[in-house]
Structures are given as structure tokens and as C-alpha cells.
Design brief:
The protein is mostly beta strands and about 210 residues long. The chain is built from two helices and 14 strands. Strands 2, 5, 6, 8, 9, 12, 13 and 14 form an eight-stranded antiparallel β-sheet that branches. The radius of gyration is 16 Å and the shape is globular.
């Protein structure tokens, strides 16, 4: 299953090769594969490669949100090309958040297997998202890409705000859950698959 981020957050066509996000099932979780242009703007964050980095959304980043529409619980995945892996594979910087309700993060700094290959003008990433990170009944999805600095900052969305709903002066907001679209994980995993229960999400209700 592959998705292309072909529009800005407010529905305009992007001016470069679109970011590609692939999703493939794995016994341990969902494998997320990124192919994206490398802008190197802004420069990589100062954190240690292979570790979570708070505030990653202020840098060059690709994001994916996996939502349970009924509960408004969701997993936010942020992945960044690292500064230290030119021409070879290394561990990239990332940030994972679990949210219960719009913008209401209740768990952060979760570990992740995330590898990056960076070339001069492109980068590729592979992240294995454990099933335990997904909220029960995950059924909606959106993805985003951000790059650039200052007035040249660009915010791109797989499922953007429809242009006729964009209001004057409106800022990009990736937590507009009403614009997420259906994601049927059984199309990836098979009709008999059942989403594994998550002890992490169970702990929220205790």
C-alpha cells in the first residue's frame, strides 16, 4: 500500500517530486517506508541519531497519523533524515506520540527501529511500528511532510483541508482529524487478521 503526498496542507499541488509512504505488514507491526526529496532545510536537529527528539516537527520531517475514529485516539509518527548518514544506512531521529483526544498527548519518547539512507538529494527511511503502539480499532490515516525555513516553510498533506474550507489567515494544523480518510489494515494483513490488543493502550483506561 503506497501513498503520495502531492498537495500542500491547503490543497495546492507540491512543486517537487512527492513524498512516498509505503505500508507493509510485519509479524511485529507495520513497516513504514519513506522515499522523499532531501532539502536539508532546516539542517538536522542536534539530537543523537537513533533516539527520540522532542520538537522534531520544527525540522525537515515526514509524519504519519493512525487514528481510531470512534475514540479519537491516535498514534503520531515523526521521522527525520539524520545529519550523520550520507551514502550509507544509519539510525534516524524520530518522535512517537500517543494521543487520546485531539492534541492530547499522554505518552511520548517511545522507542523505534528506524533506519535512514541519505543521498545528496533524496532520502529513504524504514520504521517498524509495533502493533502495540496502534490504538484499538485503528481505521483512519493521514500523512504529512514539512521542510523549509522562515517564510519558505512548506507544510504538505496526503489528505489536505479542502480548498473551499480554508479560511483567510488559517494556519496549517495536522490534528484536523475530520479530514483523515479510511485505512483498512485488513487490506494489508488479510481478511482473517485481528488487530492485536495493546497493553500500552489498556494502561490508559486503568
Amino acid at each position: 500500500m503506497e501513498f503520495l503526498i502531492e498537495h500542500t496542507w491547503d490543497g495546492l499541488p507540491v512543486s517537487h517530486e512527492p513524498v512516498s509512504i509505503g505500508l507493509r505488514p510485519d509479524n511485529a507491526g507495520l513497516l513504514m517506508e519513506i522515499r522523499a526529496p532531501f532539502f536539508n532545510d532546516p539542517p538536522a536537529p542536534p539530537g543523537e541519531p537513533g533516539k527520540p527528539f522532542g520538537g522534531l516537527w520544527d525540522y525537515e520531517v515526514v509524519e504519519a497519523f493512525f487514528l481510531s475514529d470512534r475514540s479519537e485516539q491516535y498514534l503520531e509518527v515523526e521521522l527525520c533524515p539524520s545529519d550523520a548518514c550520507e551514502t550509507h544506512v544509519c539510525h534516524g531521529q524520530y518522535l512517537l506520540l500517543l494521543l487520546s483526544g485531539r492534541r492530547k498527548a499522554w505518552k511520548e519518547q517511545l522507542p523505534l527501529e528506524f533506519e535512514v539512507t541519505r543521498m545528496e538529494t533524496r532520502w529513504e527511511g524504514k520504521a517498524l511500528l509495533p502493533w502495540s503502539y496502534f490504538p484499538p480499532c485503528t481505521d483512519k490515516f493521514n500523512a504529512f511532510a514539512i521542510h523549509g525555513s522562515g517564510e519558505e516553510r512548506k507544510y504538505e498533506a496526503l489528505y489536505p483541508v479542502p480548498p473551499h474550507q480554508v479560511q483567510e489567515g488559517q494556519e496549517p494544523d495536522f490534528h484536523r482529524l475530520e479530514f483523515f480518510k479510511d485505512l483498512n489494515l485488513k487490506e494489508l494483513t488479510g481478511a482473517d487478521w485481528k488487530q492485536p490488543e495493546s497493553d500500552i493502550w489498556k494502561s490508559l483506561t486503568k
